[in-house]
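With this grant's support, we have settled on a layout for protein records. An illustrative entry appears below exactly as we store it:
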Amino acid sequence: MNRTILITGAGTGIGRDAAFALASRGHRVFATVHDEAQAEALRTECERRRQPLEVFKLDVTSARDRERLRPLALDVLINNAAIGDSGSLAEVDVDRIRRTFEVNVFATLELTQLALQGMIARQRGTVLFVSSLAGRVPVPFLMPYSMTKFALSAAGAALRAEMDQLRRNVQVALIEPGAFHTGFNQSMTARKYEWMGRQSYFSARVAQMQAKEARVFGLVEAASTRSIVARIVTASEARRPRLRYVAPWIQGAMIRLARMLGA
């Protein structure tokens, strides 16, 4: 059955690839992006691919933009929009953490509540939260981002239990990507070096940290988003999706092993 789906953060990476994959399967896809420049770029990509997406600006932190959901009878909301930040919790400006929570958690929840009003009234619908494997195991210097994903995963699991008690056939699931080569990880980890100077506790380790990050990403990042996009498609189309969908599977297995070992 074809569904009406809205995905946030569809301008690049996993969000964009998932939007095109869902449209190719016959679903009506609202692909929303942060600003008009991204919207124009995505419309151009639609023309190039000859694939229909209904593209518009939706800054999840804007109450006015969020209201654009109200008239849409959505079958699926995919909360994919997110920002990333990094740095040691011992010294990072807390306002940077606050901003990341505002986008990744608070605005996402406000958007979800708006979509749920229609879903609960129609007694059907699915909400997907794109969290992260970084929301399962603490990652040093990545916690400004990782904490938001811990929070989002907890919120999604709890909301699923609440909707089950409501018995209105509203489904909730978590999408937990590992590391993919979309450029997001590199941009996020580089942000701490914008402010880490000689006054930083870790100033003497900056070169070592940068080299380690480049080495780790080179080893673990999946070159294609195909595996996680397939999980998003499966969860979007399922009548009763599982709680968690993880890809790449090997990264998920490594995280489970790390937790078993007490990491």
